[in-house]
């Protein structure tokens, strides 16, 4: 594993000694790991929902202050933008590194000693780990004697459906001092996500689409209620809804090519009050996931046609609310190739892999890629000996971020920040 600089010439006076000559990057990160794990566990105990990350952002700023890193709080309501200058004053655009901070409305069942102390809220997607990794990256970078690039650190709120990434961009986080951020303009950006199916210590990504566009819907099918014994005197929205939901599966099976990707999932159906009453209304909600702009447009068109016309065929009327969600998370081809080169150099070929097929999950990291070249990668969390089929998945109440992944995450973020060109 290559070293960044030489061995220390003198004893360290403390964890933030800027005069230190650093060892191999892995060893440098390892010196901070106990404190980083403690920080992650503290965040895990105190999860906060989207746009409520007041304590989390305060803890981040407190640690950045200790490091002497300039930061701006309150971006996108509860976000933090921090900046580390290059050691060469002639350096150009900044490299941005992003982590998300928010938790999910779930009740934790991990049984961990540091389990959530906030009822009904937990870090079920690993954002406590992401935030810790970015803070660990800041700790290492601020001790580097040579930083060829300015580095912008984005601690983002509200990834879980709140489009915090969109707001961060709108408020100028990529534009530097002149546009609402800190430091120079951002020229490229990297982000990561812990992934339970990938072995710990490994990373993976792919050029082009990595994660899907996420559109959500609410449909109300209205009919004429009546007595369950006399269905011919009513227009039954329950039967209509059943046919609508079944017909929607033809969007994937008959409207989109078999090598393309689209998912139409209904996650909740509600209606009715009693076993012998035909209700006047049934509501169902769900999501549509796609990977290509043209497929996204087609799926929406077919969704409206299928819902409205199938409901009408059953004597009912459908009202549709369509909520456009996150865009496709698309990795810049050249930047992704650069990621692979750096990852193989740092971790070795065996720990770096190509994601063969995109995931139909979504990510608001996608918004950054609309403005600058972007690369998002997956960080392995699967412990040795664990079965990927049974290990707790993202958004499950049994999920917990694997602390053993922190070192690899920090190593990679540092490499990406320090790479010249």
Report on this structure.
There is one protein chain. The protein is an alpha/beta fold. The protein contains 10 helices and 16 strands. It has 2 domains: 25-211 and 328-418, Aminopeptidase (3-Layer(aba) Sandwich); 214-323, Alpha-Beta Plaits (2-Layer Sandwich). The radius of gyration is 24 Å and the shape is elongated.
List keywords for this structure.
alpha/beta; 4-stranded antiparallel beta sheet; 16 strands; 8-stranded mixed beta sheet; disordered N terminus; 421 residues; 29% helix; Aminopeptidase; elongated; 24% strand; Alpha-Beta Plaits
Question: Strands, helices and their partners?
Answer:
Elements: H1 25-30, H2 33-45, H3 54-67, E1 70-75, E2 79-84, E3 94-100, H4 127-141, E4 151-156, H5 164-170, E5 186-199, E6 203-205, E7 208-211, E8 213-222, E9 226-227, H6 237-248, H7 250-255, E10 262-271, E11 277-278, E12 281-290, H8 293-313, E13 317-323, E14 329-331, H9 333-347, E15 352-354, E16 374-382, H10 406-418
Parallel strand pairs: 3-4, 3-5, 5-16, 6-15
Antiparallel strand pairs: 1-2, 2-4, 6-16, 7-14, 8-12, 8-13, 9-11, 10-12
Helix pairs in contact: 2-4, 3-4, 4-10, 6-8, 9-10
Count the DSSP helices: 10
Q: Give the overall pLDDT as a whole number.
A: 93
Per DSSP E runs of 2 or more residues, the count of β-strands stands at: 16
Helical percentage? 25-40%
């Amino acid at each position: 594993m290559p070293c960044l600089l030489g061995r220390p010439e003198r004893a360290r006076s403390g964890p933030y000694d800027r005069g230190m000559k650093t060892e191999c990057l892995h060893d440098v990160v390892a010196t901070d790991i106990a404190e980083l794990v403690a920080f992650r566990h503290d965040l895990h105990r105190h999860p906060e929902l989207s746009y409520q990350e007041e304590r989390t952002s305060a803890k981040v700023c407190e640690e950045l202050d200790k490091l002497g890193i300039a930061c701006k709080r309150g971006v996108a309501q509860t976000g933090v933008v921090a900046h580390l200058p290059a050691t060469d004053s002639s350096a150009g655009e900044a490299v941005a590194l992003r982590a998300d901070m928010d938790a999910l409305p779930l009740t934790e069942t991990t049984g961990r000693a540091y389990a959530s102390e906030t009822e009904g809220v937990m870090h079920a997607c690993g954002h406590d780990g992401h935030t810790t990794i970015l803070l660990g990256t800041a700790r290492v970078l601020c001790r580097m004697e040579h930083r060829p690039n300015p580095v912008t650190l984005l601690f983002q709120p509200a990834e879980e459906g709140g489009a915090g990434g969109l707001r961060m961009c709108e408020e100028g986080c990529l534009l530097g001092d002149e546009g609402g951020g800190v430091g120079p303009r951002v020229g490229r950006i990297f982000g990561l996500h812990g992934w339970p199916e990938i072995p710990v210590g490994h990373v993976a990504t792919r050029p082009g689409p990595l994660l899907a566009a996420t559109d959500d819907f609410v449909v109300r099918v209205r009919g004429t209620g009546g007595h369950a014994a006399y269905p011919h005197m009513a227009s039954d929205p329950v039967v209509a809804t059943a046919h609508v939901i079944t017909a929607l599966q033809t969007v994937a099976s008959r409207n989109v090519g078999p090598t393309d990707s689209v998912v139409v999932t209904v996650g909740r159906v509600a209606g009715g009050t009693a076993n012998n009453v035909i209700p006047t209304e049934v509501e169902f909600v769900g999501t549509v996931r796609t990977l290509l702009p043209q497929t996204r447009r087609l799926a929406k068109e077919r969704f409206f046609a299928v819902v409205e016309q199938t409901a009408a065929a059953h004597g009912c009327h459908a009202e549709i609310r369509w909520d456009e969600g996150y865009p496709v998370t698309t990795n810049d081809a050249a930047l992704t190739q650069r990621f692979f080169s750096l990852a193989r150099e740092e971790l070795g070929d065996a720990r770096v892999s190509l994601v063969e097929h995109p995931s139909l999950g979504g990510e608001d990291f996608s918004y950054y890629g609309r403005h600058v070249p972007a690369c998002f990668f997956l960080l392995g969390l699967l412990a040795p000996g664990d079965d990927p089929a049974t290990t707790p998945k993202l958004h499950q109440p049994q999920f917990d971020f694997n602390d053993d992944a922190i070192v690899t995450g920090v190593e990679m973020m540092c490499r990406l920040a320090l790479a010249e060109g």
